[in-house]
Amino acid sequence: MDIYIYMKHTLSASTSYWWVLFLEGLFQLVLGSLLLVSTDITMLVLVEFLGIYWLIRGVIMIVLMFVGKYKDRMLLLFGGLLGIIAGIVVLRYPLFSTFLMLETLVVFIAIIGLVQGAISIVKGSLSGGFGDVLLGIILCIVGFLLLFNPFSAVLALPVAIGILWVIGGTVLLATSLYARK
User: Fold this and answer.
1) Contact at 8 Å (CB) between 179 and 11?
2) What is the separation of C-alpha 77 from the centre of its chain, rounded to a whole number of angstroms?
3) Overall number of domains in the chain
4) pLDDT tens, 58-73?
5) In 3D, which of 59, 66, 37, 25 has the Cα closest to residue 173?
6) Does pTM top 0.70 for this prediction?
7) Domain range holding 158?
């Protein structure tokens, strides 16, 4: 089946919402471009917005604890307090928070790479698939490199995210304009 026919058939039901895809694509494209042009300032602003979000979300969770009829009130209290504390810390120490969040993300990606690499190696060894073993070895090497040299990865991560957001935003813009027709 031709990809354009498939897209038209898939998107025909949602053509009245093409503008949502357009706005999301435009937002992604702008943020991705800003990450590529002015990485440091853009990361600080994004982290500050995240701090504001966590602070507001924490307050909302605590209000919901008293207003709503939820069984897990202690969970709402814990989540609300954690959100308020995280929001205050991020807003109080934006430079440290930016680096800490990126560092945490890099370590998380490294651990996922190591786990997926080990699974691919075992899977390839059991099934005799050379490709799975090779992929697993590559994933493990990248995971170890990220884990033992996270500072370089922290510096490269915002640029990598910027590139992905520019590509993703462009695809969303094209898809939204195609769905509009």
Assistant:
1) yes
2) 26
3) 1
4) 999 999 888 877 788 8
5) 25
6) no
7) 3-180
